[in-house]
Automatic annotation (TrEMBL):
Transmembrane annotation, as ranges: 6-23, 81-100, 137-155
Organism: Fictibacillus phosphorivorans
Keyword Ribonucleoprotein: no
Official protein name in the record: VanZ-like domain-containing protein
Pfam families: VanZ (PF04892)
C-alpha cells in the first residue's frame, strides 16, 4: 500500500492542481496586468510585431491582442505543455511500477494523459470565461508525449542498472 501511495499520490496531486486551475475563471488567472506592470513590453512589440498566426480561429498578433496579451498567450501555451509533460511523466512513473512491459506502459501513460487533457478541456467548458480548444489538447498531448518518453528512458536505464 505504501508503494502505491508513493507512485500514485503525485499523480493525484498533480491532476488536482490541474482541476483547480481549470475551475478558475480567466479573470483570476489574467497575467496581463502583472506583465504590463513588470516588463517593458516595447521590447516584445519591437521583436514580434511582424508575427501573425491563427490559433483556434483567433488571430494571434501584437496588433490584434496587444503586447501583454500576445506574451500571455505564449506563457499559457507553455504552461499547457509543461503541465502535461509532468503529468505524462508521473503517470508513466506510476504505471512502470505495475507493468514491466515498456511499450504497454508507454502507450497507456500517453493515452491516460490525453484522456485527462480532453476531460480538462470539457471541464473548462463549464467554467465562466474559459473556452475549450482542441488545439490545447494537442499541445497537452505533445507535452505528455515528451514527458512519457523521458520517463521511459529514465526508468529503462534504472531497470538495466538493477539487472
Amino acid at each position: 500500500m505504501k508503494k502505491i501511495l508513493i507512485y500514485w499520490l503525485p499523480v493525484l496531486l498533480w491532476i488536482s492542481i490541474i482541476f483547480y486551475a481549470s475551475s478558475q475563471p480567466y479573470e483570476k488567472q489574467d497575467l496581463r496586468p502583472a506583465l504590463s506592470a513588470n516588463l517593458d513590453l516595447s521590447i516584445i512589440e519591437n521583436l514580434f510585431s511582424s508575427v501573425t498566426f491563427h490559433y483556434a480561429g483567433d488571430e494571434i498578433s501584437i496588433q490584434a491582442l496587444g503586447a501583454a496579451h500576445f506574451l500571455e498567450f505564449f506563457i499559457r501555451k507553455a504552461a499547457h505543455f509543461f503541465t502535461y509533460f509532468v503529468l505524462g511523466f508521473l503517470i508513466n512513473r506510476a504505471l512502470s511500477y505495475h507493468f514491466l512491459n515498456n511499450r504497454l506502459t508507454y502507450m497507456s501513460s500517453w493515452f491516460l494523459t490525453i484522456l485527462y487533457a480532453i476531460s480538462d478541456e470539457v471541464h473548462q467548458s463549464f467554467t465562466p470565461n474559459r473556452t475549450p480548444h482542441v488545439e490545447d489538447v494537442m499541445i497537452d498531448a505533445a507535452g505528455g508525449l515528451i514527458g512519457v518518453t523521458l520517463a521511459l528512458f529514465i526508468y529503462r536505464k534504472i531497470r538495466t542498472k538493477r539487472i
